[in-house]
Amino acid sequence: MPIRLLIVDDSALVRKLLTEMLGKDRDIEIVGTAADPFAARERIKQLNPDVITLDVEMPRMDGITFLENLMRLRPMPVVMVSSLTQHGADITLRALELGAIDFVPKPKVDVAGSLTNYAEELIAKVKMAAGARVNPRATAPRPVAMQVDERRSADAVLPAVSGRRVLRTTDRIIAIGASTGGTEAIREVLDALPADAPAIVISQHIPAAFSKPFAERVNRSSQMSVCEAQDGQYILPGHVYIAPGDRHLIVERDGARYRCRLSDGPHVNRHRPSVDVMFRSVAQNVGPNAVGVILTGMGDDGARGLKEMLEAGAGTIAQDEASSVVWGMPGAAHKLGAAQHVMPLHRIPAQILALSNEAGASRAVG
Predict the structure, then answer these.
(1) How many domains does the chain divide into?
(2) pLDDT, average across residues 184-190
(3) Is 212 found in the same domain as 168?
(4) In this structure, are residues 161 and 284 in contact, taking their beta carbons and an 8 Å threshold?
(5) What is the C-alpha to C-alpha distance for residues 228 and 102, in angstroms, rounded to an integer?
(6) How big is the CA angle at 210 (ends 207 and 213), to the nearest 5 degrees?
(7) Catalytic hit among 153, 179, 222, 263
(8) Is 362 a catalytic residue?
């Protein structure tokens, strides 16, 4: 059966463009449109859609208030359509907290031309949302075909090396990768870690305009100090470094210390930042002093890099299917044999600390 989609946006032009682009895919049926949340509420009752695309800023009732009511009364997959601005980022991150599955940016200029270029992304995210898990008590999601770009691997940014000896130090690094559903999964993990936890580096698939507001938002709730990573920045215990939304984050060894390096290299697995690139750098430069964690996300970015970390002696963790919004990335890592531990999200913080302590104990014995 095709995915039944309801489009909610106050702009008649955007409604028309979304209808034309998404309606071309035979797996998607546009069952209706609505210009505001009040009309959307009636359309949902009448049409029973599988997925909604929801504008952030609308008259009569804003998208966030509507989403909050929707998730309380009738939870269902929602893809937000938001502007790439500071205000748009804050609202969109709030929408993800409330349960929206994902978002697509709404360009500020040349709306028709820019949105047309987004057709492939829009279609992929609507299909993904249809099979995503809205809450942990939902039934198992429909399988979703994941599109993988095999044209570039992490080799395009950071060549693989063999036989490199990684010096053991007292510093440990936790590397976390995520995509769809990852902003909330990351926040939950960081909120459960103590202020003196080992340093953490994170690559989350997110637009450039969103990564700094995301870091600031997580910093307000975490006991650790969270920031958007800067090139050359030393990596310190008790601190979290989130990759900027348009640059790869690479962990570089500097004597007995580590630094963040940012790269404008090509997209890897369709993404920049790429989790594979970050994981490879950690495997090469941190090795057994690291722990790798792959969380919810669409696609398979990070699976190969996590395998490289495991082969370098690092502890590895993947989020399980039941607690993932989309079990693409962690599922691919599990299939590849890259994850030593596959577990629910709420158990991952304790496992991170346990693996970090094991690494520290082995160094003390050695």
Answers:
(1) 2
(2) 97
(3) yes
(4) yes
(5) 21
(6) 165
(7) 179
(8) no
- CA distance linking residue 225 with residue 59, whole number of Å: 38
Would residue 301 show up in a list of annotated catalytic residues for this protein? yes
Locate 73 and state its tokens. Answer: 């009364």
Helix (H, G, I), strand (E, B) or coil at 148: coil
Q: Which CATH number does the domain housing residue 355 bear?
A: 3.40.50.180
Query: Rounded to 10 degrees, what is the CA torsion of 209, 292, 277, 366?
Result: 130
Quick one: DSSP state of residue 99? T
Of the residues 9, 83, 205, 211, only one is catalytic, namely: 205
Annotated catalytic residue 162? no
CA nearest neighbour of 4 among 43, 61, 55, 59: 43
HSE (side-chain half, CA atoms, 13 Å) at 364? 6
**Residues 98, 64: contact at Cβ < 8 Å?**
yes
Which residue type occupies 237?
Answer: P
Confidence band of 105 (pLDDT split at 50, 70, 90) = confident
Do 110 and 54 share a structural domain? Answer: yes
86 located within any domain: yes
Give me the catalytic one of 211, 301, 323, 334: 301
Same domain, 117 and 182: no
**Domain housing 348:** 155-365
Distance of CA 251 to the CA centre of its chain: 19
Higher-scoring residue by pLDDT: 59, 69:
69
217 with 119, same domain: the answer is no
Residues 189-239: tens digit of each pLDDT: 999 999 999 999 999 999 999 999 999 999 999 999 999 999 999 999 999
270 and 333, same domain (yes or no): yes
Same domain, 116 and 163: no
The verdict on 50 and 181 lying in the same domain is no
